[in-house]
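Morning!

This is the sequence you dropped in the shared folder:
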Amino acid sequence: MIKTIKQYSFLIILIFISIISCDENNDTNDTNDNKYSVCDGTKTLSAKEYHVLINKGTELPFTGELLNNKEDGVYTCKICDTPLFRSEAKFNSGTGWPSFDDAIKENIKLEKDGNRVEVVCANCGGHLGHVFYNEGFTEKETRYCINSVSLNFINKFTNETSTNK
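The structure's back. C-alpha cells below.
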C-alpha cells in the first residue's frame, strides 16, 4: 500500500513538472514585443507566429482569426506569400482550425510527422498544420487542418490582404 502511494505521488509530481515545462516552452502570449526576422530579414513574425511556423507548434483551437472567414479569395503563406488554399476549398469541420479539402498542390509539401502527415509551404518550409484522410467531412475525404497564424488572406474582390496578429 505504501509502495502504491509513493508511485502515485511520483506520478503526480512528474505530471505537474511536465505541465509546468510545457507552459514555459509553449508561451505564445503576444503581450511581449518580440519580433522574429525570417526570409532574408524582410519579414517579421510575432512570437505566436514564430512558434507555429518555425517551431512547428499549434495555435489553440477556436482562436484563429481566419477560422470563420467566409470571404472569396486565396490563403497565402504568412512568411513568403505563396498561394496555398482557395476559399472554395474551405469548410467548417468544427475542429477549431481552418479546414480545407483541397490545396494548391504545387505550393505545399507533405512530410511524415510520426503518425500524422505535416503540411509545410513548399517555398519556405513554414509549418502550416496537418492533413487527415477518410474522415467523411467532404466528398474529397481530405482535411487540411491549418493554423490561422500560418496564413494571410487575400480578398478576391478588393485584393486586400488580411493578416492575423
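Headline: The mean pLDDT is 83.

More detail when I'm at my desk.
O.
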